Amino acid sequence: MSALTGTPSSTPPTAGRAGRTVAASIDGSAPRPPQALRVKARKRPLPTAGKVVGIVALLAFALFPAYWMFSSAIDPEAATRGARILPAGVTWDNFVTVIDDGGFGHYLRNSIVVAIGAVVFSSVLALLAAVAVSRFRFRFRKSILVLVLMVQMVPLEALVIPLFLQMRTLGMLNSLLGLTIVYIAFSLSFAIWMLRGFVAAVPVELEEAAYLDGASWGRMFWKILLPLVAPGVVATSVFSFITAWNEFIFALTFLQQSAKYTVPIGLQKFFGENTTDWGAVMAASTLITLPVIVFFVLVQRNLSSGLTAGSVKG
Amino acid sequence: MQVLGHKSPLRPWLLLAPALGVLGVLLLWPLARVVMISLQDYGLRQIASGESNYIGFDNYAAIFGDSFLWTVVLPNTIGFAVACVVLTVVLGTAVALFLNNLGTLWRTVCSTAIMVAWAVPAITGTYVWIWIFDPLNGLVSSVLDSVGLIDPATTNWFTERLSFYAIATLNVVHHGFPFVAITVLAGLLTIPKELHEAAMMDGATPWRRFWTITAPILRPVFAVVTILSTIWDFKVFTQIYLMPGGNGGNKEVFNLGVWSYIQSFAQGKYGMGSAIAVLLTLILLGITIVYMRTLFKEEEL
């Protein structure tokens, strides 16, 4: 982690010459002074000119779609915006339109209900399973881990046909409960995989100390393990929430009455009926996107370490 | 021995049972069922009656005998996935190397920005790209119109297969490069700086240092991000389905996932749709097995 504290600006990367950001940084840092001055260079607070260009290009590329979405949503003349970089004015009318006339207040509520239901159940099930695979050595343990990984690769297009038929038979096609049950299954394997890393990070010695003090397994779980993996559970829950919030293909197939739409389907139907009302479409998109961005950026550190915990050493 | 007493052989299975039950009922059983449906002529009549109607491998024969698969669907699926994976990994790696050379403050700012790109949901991101490339009032056509490059009245990028997929590629790469960048950056931070310093003293160029130091050490990281990206990009559905023409209006732009979905839910040919879905699953299974091999070589589970 030493690299976090400061990097010598005299080691420009060249691997991806394709990226203009990187190409720019080479030009900027080429005339850097030799070894002896490196320590001084390391403390320079401002990036070099080449890096500034790189940073600006990267920020512009990364943020442009989100900016274009939000700025069109508040633009009173969004539909004829063309190439205007700044909106013509600031209005909240588009948001009022989609919530009042577009039914998005209702869709948002449906999405929250489904996502929270999926999060609660999948987190509990995933935590128990993660404890099993990271704290116990038993037969078929490795097979189960392989299974958990494998099911993440299954394309939803292959599951949607049999599950549609099944839910149809059970009469749960138009129900938020049916959708919630399906989402529990989809977030489960990823949640197990991610929580596995968090559980494994808790020192076994803490558990053993609890047993020596006479605690039962259940007591150890509540008093020792759960508080220590709580941050991991939160990060995993946020991810499960986002998965359920964004899911499109099952919601599209299962939900046939507008009273039951979740936000992705609400947006798709709204766009179908108001194809050129870009201000309203972007306002609805902003309503869907904003909570995801906030959650995602909040848990970014945990998420990326959890994602790579199973796959990358170190 | 006291400690071992808490590890009764049944406990892990009790902890696993609920999760395995859910995965079995909602993932494994449906997978078995989609294979069974793919061997039937399963249409609206069978849905209503609940009867089975096995026809062997006729659906598969029909798919493989259809030139639509070979000239449209497979080229779309594979060409799109390859383009997306290459661009995502190259761009993500370039960004990671760039971030690795920034100070803490700017690295945090930039990685937060690319997290935003990552977080934008596929569905809303797709609508933004549709809006940006909208033929009438979109940003790109307005700019190109004002410099006289195109006539917006006669230009519609969504109807042409190649330009349709170019926009979809931009959408998917923009959504996918942050994962590669963040993962590769995490790997870069573990490489001891002394290696690069020693190579620099020997006069190695940055290009050479990347290929002789960074690339070999991060080989497993590159393997994982490449294979994961491949799996994700093969089964892209939402971004294609939502673009104009992608939901059935323009057969030229179908990929395997969209073709399967349209066959099933628009045409009512669930058997045929299932067979296409099984084909997609088998391709992904092959890639997944490569992924597992890579993963288990690097890590003790």
TrEMBL record, chain B:
Pfam families: BPD_transp_1. Keywords: Cell membrane, Membrane, Transmembrane, Transmembrane helix, Transport. It is a multi-pass membrane protein. It is found in: Cell membrane. Its main location: membrane. Residues 74-291 form the ABC transmembrane type-1 domain. PROSITE patterns: ABC_TM1. The chain crosses the membrane at residues 12-32, 78-99, 111-132, 164-189, 210-232, 270-292. InterPro entries: MetI-like, MetI-like_sf, UgpAE/MalFG_permease. Gene3D superfamilies: MetI-like. Belongs to the binding-protein-dependent transport system permease family. This is Sugar ABC transporter permease. It comes from Oerskovia rustica.
